[in-house]
Write a structure and sequence with these properties.
Blueprint lengths: L2 H64 L1 H20 L1
Helix pairs in contact: 1-2
Length: 88
């Protein structure tokens, strides 16, 4: 082979390597974008779960304040049943 043929092969290989680098960079960028989207969705879901949980706790606290004796009775009964179940 002459020098021109060897240089052409080297140039083609360099071009293919550059093309592969660009392709891989594109895939990495797409992956990073999808990860960011998932991260945003997870944070939103976490915030929604915390909000709902706090609302339920507030409602439960209101019910206990409204009916303190009934709440103690229910707690006692649930504790007794759980004790009986776990003793076996």
């Amino acid at each position: 082979m002459n020098k021109t043929g060897a240089t052409d092969v080297g140039t083609k290989i360099d071009e293919k390597i550059d093309s592969l680098k660009d392709t891989v960079k594109g895939y990495v960028d797409q992956g990073a974008q999808k990860v960011d989207e998932l991260k945003t969705k997870i944070v939103e879901a976490k915030d929604e779960a915390i909000t709902r949980g706090n609302n339920l706790l507030d409602r439960a606290a209101e019910m206990v304040r409204a009916h303190p004796l009934r709440s103690v009775g229910i707690a006692f009964g649930a504790g007794y049943l759980l004790m009986r179940l776990f003793r076996r």
